[in-house]
Amino acid sequence: MQDLFFDDKTYQKIDFSTEKFIRAEYDTCTFNNCSFANVDLSNNAFLDCKFIACNFSNTKFKNTSLKNVTFDSCKLVGNLFDQCSKFLLSLNFEACNLSFVSFYKLNLKGINFKDCKLLEVDFTETNLTNAVFKNGNLEGSIFSKTNLNSADFSTAINFKINPELNNIKKAKFSQQGLYGLLIDYDIEIIL
Question: What is the pTM of this model?
Fold first, then answer.
């Protein structure tokens, strides 16, 4: 079977849960208002692609290549990004719902999460060096043995990060965010 390749195409308002998604390499493609809910995207490749207002709830990404991919205003609830191909993995998220997602052990150095809902996300052993969590809600998210060096949490809320279990050298936190760093110590913080 010949490998398929799609370049510089735009896909509008397609429900791939009812229409068959073609396994291929997608380069510089835009997906606008598409639904991938419960779709198996395993073994596909997306390079320099943009997804706008798409639904990826419980989508399978096993061995999927995501290289320089942007998700804007997407619903990505319950996805296991740790099953993606790790080779050149590069993601950015803006105004997305990433609740119950797993980034376990991924190298996400320099990733941007702008205006995202990140409830109960698993960041265990993830490299988030230079990551930006601009206006992100991180309630219930797990940080354990996570590299947060130079990460920016200055506008993030509801995070709980134990400095003894994570690398936080040169990470940025607001004064209000100190509570999320000290909650495990059962102390009272008065601002």
Answer: 0.91
Kind and range of the H or E run holding 10: strand 10-12
Do 103 and 84 contact (CB within 8 A), yes or no?
Answer: no
With pLDDT > 70 as the criterion, what percentage of the chain qualifies?
A: 92
CB atoms within 10 A of CB 2: 4
Lookup: tokens for 71 = 């998700």
pLDDT band at 2 (very low <50, low <70, confident <90, very high): very low
Which pLDDT score is estimated for 182? 63
Q: What is the DSSP string of 19-81?
A: SPPPPSEEES-EEES-B-TT-B-TT-EEES-EEES-B-TT-B-TT-EEESEEEES-B-TT-BG
All domains of the chain in start order, with CATH: 1-97 (2.160.20.80)
Spatial strand order in the sheet of 30-32: 10-12, 30-32, 50-52, 69-72, 91-94, 112-114, 132-134, 152-153, 172-173
35 Ramachandran zone, left/alpha/beta (phi>0; psi -120 to 50): beta
pLDDT digits (tens, 9 = 90+) for 80-125: 999 999 999 999 999 999 999 999 999 999 999 999 999 999 999 9
Tokens in use for 180? 């999320």
Whether the CB-CB separation of 142 and 126 falls below 8 Å is answered with: no
- Residue 112 DSSP SS3: strand
